């Protein structure tokens, strides 16, 4: 008798082991190469590969085989985020060269946190259907961990380069040695030496940070000044069989990089509308471009204090990293924080941001219309661009640029595989390819957001229920409700609570029960208190109990409080307030 796995979380609390064969039956397969659906298919997985795909009625499932009922569901290839940075958290303290908050949290602590969370971040990517990520700028400390990271079965596979080879190194990163994300190169010979230095760490490619900035020189003169270094790095990397990615946000730097052999442009050109000659250059050289449309918004929304998270972000992002983005409301350097807020929200800054955004979107549409290879990437890790959860916003921005949903799905799957010449191994639902797959509950072409409505994720033939990949720790639940509170988002605030939650005034005075009563009480407070904010002053976690010491701004008043959260069955069941 066949073992059948209906698509309900209760049946898939843990990853299924790799059986000799697994059958996904009666499923609609997304053919991303030909932009079409093939209905009523059975997909056979043997080990870590797709071994057969046929009409459901043509395949007889042997006794003892594992069967997943895919009726009414859609099977797409595993997604790729082609631009991430593990050394950055996406939180407020991760870029001291942009905003220096090291007196509140040292950069050394931030680095250590990033390393401690690496496995969790990999799991978050897999939870969101992202089976592969490309880290386009890491430290030697992270690059040295790549092999270890890829032993994690229940996390995204990682491809990684080392420190960015650059002619400009921000002062905040100097002297960090193995933790530095930059290698400063000032001559062509140093460029070749830096490539050779990375080789012993076995990088998947080499990355250049091509910054057109040198004294009083303009972008073109500066770009041409440093071109011999760029060319030397590209030639040396190619001599060792490695592709080269280049950060180039000006048209001139992007053009010179491609003319001299660059394989992968990791950002859009944002200073001017590209012409047909530039488009043809990318197409004839078979260069992949990753637009990263939303990363600047993360900075603007965070530093301008105009964050507006969606429920998806509260549920899928690391709750501590998301929560840190709200810290500007209580950090004591009010002069610095006010300066950033005024600048970001000034008419000139907003006009410039709008200009760059419109140029980036127009350039993307022009490239897509010319069939230039586009790969989806978020630049996750930068302030306000949170790992894993930011992927959906990037897809939506690509849609706003004029890409259709098939083009976006191609950019997120097969095109990501093409970056490092892996399209024969992964990137489509094809016999003989790696079984990296996502089973969706709804059609991602009729509604792009359905790409996040995931029933199952399959990596290397192993099947995972997304709800089991990230543990709902007591601390995470407490932080998620705090994030919802500080964002005055009632749905995000209530999500971690049990339906029959009990709210007490310590020690034993019952104030009210039930999530519905909470909704009524807190909805009114959120609506009527626009400057509501809770600063977490300290947290103690003991088994299933979380004790938070808080300082709450309520209107023009401040008060101190202690909240004691009791966790039962992955929900907050009881809360005791001490004031």
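-> sequence recovered:
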């Amino acid at each position: 008798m066949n073992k059948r796995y209906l698509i309900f979380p209760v049946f898939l609390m843990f990853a299924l082991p790799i059986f000799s064969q697994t059958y996904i039956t009666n499923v609609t397969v997304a053919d991303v190469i030909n932009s079409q659906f093939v209905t009523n298919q059975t997909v056979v997985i043997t080990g870590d590969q797709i071994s057969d795909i046929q009409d459901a009625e043509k395949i007889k499932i042997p006794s003892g085989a594992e069967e997943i009922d895919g009726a009414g569901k859609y099977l797409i290839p595993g997604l790729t985020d082609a631009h991430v940075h593990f050394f950055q958290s996406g939180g407020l303290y991760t870029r001291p060269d942009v905003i220096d908050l090291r007196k509140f949290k040292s950069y050394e602590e931030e680095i250590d946190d990033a390393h401690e969370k690496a496995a969790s971040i990999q799991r978050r990517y897999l939870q969101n259907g992202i089976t592969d990520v490309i880290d386009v700028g890491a430290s030697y400390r992270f690059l040295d961990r790549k092999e270890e990271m890829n032993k994690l079965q229940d996390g995204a596979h990682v491809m990684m380069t080392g420190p960015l080879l650059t002619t400009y190194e921000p002062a905040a990163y100097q002297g960090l040695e193995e933790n530095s994300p930059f290698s400063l190169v000032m001559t062509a010979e140093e460029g070749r030496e830096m490539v050779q230095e990375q080789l012993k760490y076995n990088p998947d490619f080499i990355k250049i940070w091509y910054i057109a900035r040198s004294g009083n020189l303009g972008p073109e003169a500066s770009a041409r000044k440093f071109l011999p270094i760029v060319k030397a790095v590209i030639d040396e990397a190619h001599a060792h069989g490695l592709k080269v990615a280049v950060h180039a946000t000006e048209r001139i730097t992007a053009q010179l990089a491609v003319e001299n052999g660059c394989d992968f442009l990791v950002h859009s050109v944002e200073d001017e509308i590209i012409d047909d000659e530039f488009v043809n250059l990318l197409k004839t050289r078979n260069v992949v471009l990753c637009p990263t449309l939303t990363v600047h918004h993360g900075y603007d929304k965070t530093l301008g204090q105009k964050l507006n998270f969606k429920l998806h972000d509260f549920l899928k992002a690391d709750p501590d990293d998301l929560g840190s983005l709200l810290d500007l409301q209580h950090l004591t350097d009010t002069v610095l924080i006010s300066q950033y807020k005024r600048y970001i929200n000034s008419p000139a800054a907003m006009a410039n941001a709008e200009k760059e955004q419109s140029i980036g979107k127009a350039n993307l549409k022009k490239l897509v219309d010319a069939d230039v290879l586009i790969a989806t990437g978020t630049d996750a890790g930068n302030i306000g661009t949170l790992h894993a959860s930011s992927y959906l916003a990037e897809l939506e921005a690509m849609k706003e640029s004029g890409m259709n949903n098939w083009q976006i799905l191609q950019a997120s799957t097969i095109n990501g595989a093409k970056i490092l010449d892996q399209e024969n191994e992964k990137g489509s639902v094809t016999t003989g390819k790696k079984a990296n797959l996502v089973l969706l509950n709804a059609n991602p072409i009729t509604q792009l957001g359905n790409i996040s409505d995931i029933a199952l994720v399959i990596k290397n033939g192993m099947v995972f229920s997304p709800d089991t990949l990230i543990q709902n720790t007591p601390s995470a639940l407490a932080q998620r409700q705090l994030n919802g509170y500080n964002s005055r988002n009632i749905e995000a605030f209530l999500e971690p609570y049990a339906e029959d939650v009990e709210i007490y005034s310590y020690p034993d005075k019952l104030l009210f029960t039930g999530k519905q009563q909470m909704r009524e009480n807190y909805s009114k407070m959120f609506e009527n208190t626009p400057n509501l904010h809770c600063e977490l002053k300290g947290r103690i976690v003991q088994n299933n109990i979380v004790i938070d010491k808080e300082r709450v701004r309520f209107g023009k008043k401040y008060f101190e409080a202690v909240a004691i959260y009791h966790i039962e069955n992955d929900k907050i069941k009881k809360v005791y307030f001490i004031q």
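The chain is about 35% helix and 25% strand.
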